[in-house]
Amino acid sequence: MYSTIIVGTDGSESAAEAVSAAAELARQSGAVLHLVTAYQASSGGMAVLAAGVVIPDPGPAHALISQRAHDILAEVAGKLEGVSIERHAAEGDPADSIVAVAEQVGADVIVVGSKGMNRRILGSGPNSVAHKAPCAVLIVKTV
Question: What is the end-to-end Cα distance of the chain in Å, rounded?
């Protein structure tokens, strides 16, 4: 069925629902689950983690921001059992990062949560992923 599955996470409860669904799909398929989180520096001299954590003056704190992204991935991965996991902390827009990892690893499917879909705003995470994805996208109903 699937051999490579991508799921984005920011460590939130909503993202945990998508991760849970992706992990179950990976278990059933024997697929490798790729966890992706993103962080980015803003033009205002701050850095923003995908989870919304803002760090002023990212220059000296860049390593801290990157480490926090890796910590989120480790925490999420630590809650999953019975599935092969690879972790990706990427600097950039979350949707673009998810799509880039999917392209890089030749993903069969990307799993995203529906949170943000009802806003009808161009560029919302799930909408961006669905429009840019190089593979199938599974949208999991999340709150």
Answer: 28
